[in-house]
Structures are given as C-alpha cells and as structure tokens.
Amino acid sequence: MNKDILKYGFLILLLPILQEVIFNHINLFGFVNPMIYIVFVFVFPVYKNKTSILWASFILGLFIDMLSNEGGIHTFSLVFVSYFRLFFLRFVKGSSLGDEETIDILQIGNSIQVVWILIVSFTHHFLVYLLEQFSFHRFGFVLLKTFLTTILTSLLISFALQIFLKKKSNAW
Amino acid sequence: MFQIFKFFSKNRILLLFLFLEFVAFILIFQTHSYQQSKYITSSHRISGNLLKKSEQIHSYFGLKEKNDNLVKENVSLKNELEKYKQLQVPPTVVFQDTAKKYSYIVAKVIKNSYLKRDNTITLDKGSVDGVQPNMGVILPNGIVGITLNVSKHFCTVMTILNSKSSINVKFKKNYHFGSLMWNGKSYTQTQLWDIPIQADIKKGDSIVTGGQSVFFPEQIPVGVISKVTYANKTFERIDVKLFADFSALHTVYIVTNKYRDEQQNLETQTENE
To answer: Of A83, A135, B13, B163, whose CB has the highest number of CB atoms within 10 Å?
Structure first.
C-alpha cells in the first residue's frame, strides 16, 4: 500500500507534465490532441475501498485543469469515469467478472482491454468536450471531436500498456 | 437518527463521488462567470512556471520558423522605410496619443488556445510588471483580448475568441461603430453587430478599434469585412476576417491606460445619477 502511494503519487505529478509538454501539441487535423492522462484510470489497482481512486483522480484532474485553464472540466470527467470504470468493464466482459476485489486489470485479455479503453475514453472525452462547449450548440462538432480524439487516445494508451506494463506484469 | 447514520455509512462512496463532482462542477461554473476561480487557473505560480518551461522547449523547435518570420518582417519594414525616404515628408502620426495616455508592456504567450468556445491565453507578465486585470492586449496588426486573472508573474487573457468578449470597433473610413463578438466557428473570423443599416459597408472595408473602449487605444487595426448577409433590409451577419493569426501568437503588448479608472468611475457615477 505504501509503495502504491509513492508510485501513483509520482504518476499524478508526471502525467500532467507529459500531457502539457508533449501531447497537447500533437494537433492532428488541427484540433485533435490525445488526453493520455486518463491512463491513470486503467492502471490504478482495484482496491476494496473506492475512496482512494476517487481522491486520486480528483487531484490529477485538478492539476490538468490548472494547466489547461478550464475550471473543473477534466476533474469532473475523470472522477466520473474512475467511479464507473468497473461498471464499464463488467459491461464489456459480460457477467463473468467474478470477485471485483481480486481482478487484475492487466490480466483481463487484450481484446477486452481495448474495448474497455475505447468505451471509457469515449465517455470521458464526450464529457470534456460537452462541458467545454457548455451547450448543445454545434453538437455534431463535439461528437466528431470526441470520436477522433477517442481513437487517438485509445491507440496511444493501448500501446503504452503493452510496452510498459505487460513486460513487468509478473512483478505487479 | 441511527437510520440516517446507517444510510451515510452504506453509501459513503457514492456520496464522496457526488461531492467531488459537485466541487468540480462549481469550478466549471466559476469559469463561466466573469470572476474566474483564483486557484485552478494557469496564472497560478506552479502551473505558470511549468507552462513557461514547456513554451521554452517548444519555442526552441520553432526557432527556424520564427527566424523566417523575422526576416520577412525585416524585409517589409525596409520596404516601408524606402517608401518613406522617397516621400520626403515627415511620417504621419499613427496613434493619436497627445496626453501620453497609453504605455505598453511586452509579454510572451506561454499558453495559447483558439479551438474552444471560450478561449483564454496565458502571458509571462504579472503584477510585478505592472499588469492588472482588465487591461487590453494587442498585436502590431490586431487586438488579442483583455487580461482576466493576474498573479505575481503571470496573467491570463480572455481573447476576442470568447463568448463573453465584446469589443467596441468602428470603420476606418467613417465613424459608424459596432460590437465585435465571436460565434465560435472559425478562429480567423469574428462577427460585427449593432451596425445601423444606413452605414455604407462592403466587402474589404477595414475595421479598427473605436474610441469608446477604455481597454484599447483608438485606430488599432482589427480586420477586414469578408462577407455581408442581409435579411429584411437589415444586416443579418457581418463577418470580419481578423488580421491577427490566433494559431501563431507569440509576442503581444499589454496596454496600460493611465486614466482608465478615472474614466470608468466617471461613467458609472454618471449612470447612477
């Protein structure tokens, strides 16, 4: 547990810096920037008590919002998907999730993991862009932006998980 | 009593979730009111410094492009100079600033945004450099916006690409004036409102800042009219193509108006009477 606090505390500091310094400058098609910081929702371990992930994603969201100057948009969306992440996983995997307290997110199989990442990213990005617009005006553009960003974010996160985590999965 | 306690302990995760979302929503709501949150903003000391470092890294990669732009600017300035030399007359006064009303602070853009509905940018100058909230920000070839939050070393600017921005402008050729507001579609174009129908306007007319604004000096170029649509003998929409390229903002000038408070106080005093 103490090791985890250090590890994920470090991640909370690192992700906003990576997001701001590298991934906010991709500008694919002029407006698509992947939000890779939501990888946090996928790697944070499943504890019996959900309090820790809610607080952790709240703090991470605040850091992202400070850098992007958008009030609480990222905080709201990140806390939302971190609360519902296991609900989405159960939805993808069917009823056979088993005991929630013992599942290892890194061992759930590649195809399930990709679909899960897609659904969570879509929900998160949709909330971010909708709150950014703050109205249903130009709803089509919000959807287009959500689709494109979801694809880019999911690709990057899936690759990152493959490269950085699968190798070490025995040690986790 | 025991029932309430049981309910809270049973649903404490859900309640924590709702509480955190509520806090986040308050923060979102605050950015949509004029007075922004003072803490979750990029003019905060820590985030400001991080953005400055990030800008330094990215500006290093853009050095070649900036060099080319400077060379181009140099060439055009030299051409201008040659023209003046040939004219052999004293250059005309561009800014009529008889009372030394305005002075300028040079600032660098360390965080830019232009693709959202409400765009703000962050500058590397703050209260120690003399920046205050509600000061105009301009470019040599256009206007950028108005300062919003100011910390010790940074400030955020509400650009004209923002739903809350409304700038007093007028035509260069006559004195019809109107308001410049943005409909959120393209970052190269804003819209002009409140123009009377008798104003003789056509595509290509130049728009400059009007003298009614306390934020900007008069006669700063803004853009040209790119499209006019009519409906029922009134103007339905007037598009203005901006001179300023918001996707490549780098160095901007913050305008300090020595008599701003005096003018504003006098105006509110007169309104209240």
So the answer is: A83
